[in-house]
Specification:
With 257 residues, the chain is an alpha/beta fold. Helix content is 35%, strand content 14%. The chain folds into two domains: 126 residues, Nitrogenase molybdenum iron protein domain (Rossmann fold, 3-Layer(aba) Sandwich), CATH 3.40.50; 115 residues, Rossmann fold (3-Layer(aba) Sandwich).
């Protein structure tokens, strides 16, 4: 049972991880089935469906005072339904690694008075992220196709968080499109044979949301015959919050290799 004070429900895996990292894990009363890190801290926290299909009836019964959501990961209609029974909805929308600084400020403003440790841990995360951001590009500029799905192939627009992470090491995503503040255009479908595919230097196969494995490398190679194809850790490149700095360091190692 959570202690007196805020009762936090997180509908975003990376935000759930951030809640625990900031010392607020005991106040979590609900999470999605995709909120799996850190496993030990979340074992007893009830699940309320997925990020896109939240069990609103169960969530209502858990009586959260704060629900954490994200513009990309949760449906607008879900957030609107939450307003009927949740006192405070915390909306997040990081679109690049530096936005994690504002995210930490946001969480500290909302929860800093609850636990003194929040400010201490937020400061440590800011310092770690600041050092990772200051490192800059790690190798030559590259044109990258980051694949998140197959059948159909899907990638990321340039104004997404993933593209922002890649840009931090000098990797520019293709196609050269922005997806806007929300919606499906942020994750465009890739048409095999599109002329711009010949310009790709490197194809990255993410481990999530589609779990690409070694058997998919040849398929991706056929999509971009002249590119280098490699599998990458999607959690490190798409989860904001406490693993942003680790993700940036991971990217630098990839870029230098």
């Amino acid at each position: 049972m959570s202690p007196p004070g805020p009762r936090i429900a997180s509908l975003v895996p990376s935000l759930t991880e951030l809640v625990v990292a900031l010392g607020l894990g005991a106040r979590l009363v609900a999470r999605t089935g995709f909120c799996i890190h850190p496993a030990e801290a979340l074992a007893a926290v009830p699940k309320v469906g997925g990020t896109k299909d939240v069990n609103l009836a169960k969530l209502r019964r858990l009586a959260p005072t704060h629900v954490l959501v994200n513009v990309d990961e949760n449906r607008r209609e879900t957030v609107e339904a939450l307003r009927a029974f949740v006192p405070e909805i915390v909306v997040t929308h990081p679109c690049g690694p530096a936005d994690n600084l504002a995210l930490l400020d946001q969480f500290e403003a909302v929860f800093g008075a609850v636990e003194p440790v929040v400010a201490v841990r937020a400061a440590a995360l800011r310092d770690e992220l600041g050092a990772a951001l200051a490192a800059g590009p790690a190798g030559p500029a590259q044109r990258v196709l980051y694949l998140i799905w197959r059948a159909p192939w899907m990638t990321v627009a340039r104004d997404t968080y993933i593209a922002g992470m890649l840009a931090s090491v000098g990797w520019q995503t293709l196609p050269a499109v922005d997806g806007g503040p929300s919606g499906a255009a942020r994750y465009p479908v890739v048409e095999p044979g599109a002329p711009w595919l010949a310009e790709v230097d490197r194809v990255l196969l993410s481990s999530e949301p589609y779990r690409f494995d070694a058997g998919h490398v040849a398929e991706a190679q056929a999509l971009c015959p002249g590119a280098r194809v490699q599998r990458v850790d999607g959690e490190l490149l798409s989860w904001y919050g406490p693993r942003a700095a680790t993700g940036l360091r991971y990217l630098r190692r990839l870029a230098a290799g």
